[in-house]
Amino acid sequence: MENQNIQHNINRDEQVIEIKNLYKSFDELDVLKGIDLTVFKGENVAVLGKSGSGKSVLIKLLVGLLKPDKGEITVLGQKVDKLSNMELNSLRLRIGFSFQNSALYDSMNIRQNLGFPLTMNVKNLSKKEITKSIEEVLDAVGLADKIEEMPGDLSGGQRKRIGIARTLILRPEIMLYDEPTSGLDPITSSEINKLILQVQKQYNTSSIIITHDLTCAKETGDRMAMLVNGKFNMEGTFEEVFDSDDEQVKGFFNYNFIQ
Q1: Across 189-254, where does the E strand assignment appear?
Q2: From the centroid of its chain, how far is CA 196?
Q3: Where would you tag: which of 39, 117, 160, 201 has the fewest CB atoms within 10 A of its CB?
Q4: Against a cut of 0.70, is the pTM above it?
Q5: 67 has a pLDDT exceeding 70
């Protein structure tokens, strides 16, 4: 399946994420070694790399959970490492994070799971307004009929969808997806990929999709950035990145890609 994104929705005059010369090490381990990346308004960028290549570290730096050793991260016009805790919390409300494990509360039903971020972060909402928001996002992910169910009663793919719905309820401007198709069968993975595109279009989000699943990258990403040995060694469309003689890129493709 070719990428179905409508390219003209991307505004290349507006940068929502700008990373410049970013370095991060842990003791003797150099994880990121001077990376640069720009994400434009309305764009999905798939960040590819093997396990341990620094993809998750990049996400944590973006939302201020880690501080860079060197370099600059600007998100929605704000320099992340210069923000106070209050400013950082305010910025994080504009960023949706879809966890690999969906991060649902097992003791709450789906209605309660989705309502929780709203009641925690948006003051003075009526019960009616909360219900309306919950029903809207459930409808967007195609699971309106699961509102009273418990997370334990759902399949892995359904839990992923509910996790995305819970992220959408605060209407984020940026979505960060961490291995969105991990552990899913090919059919369910394809459904999640379509949902990521639908979210991009319906909610006008800009996204970074962290993945080592090349089908996911090909179907959801307007642009790929390949992280190898702490640097982005290839960037461009799927075809531009993988029509390469670089041995590491070819090896990654051959190991991962199932046509």
Answers
A1: 206-211, 223-228, 231-236
A2: 9
A3: 201
A4: yes
A5: yes
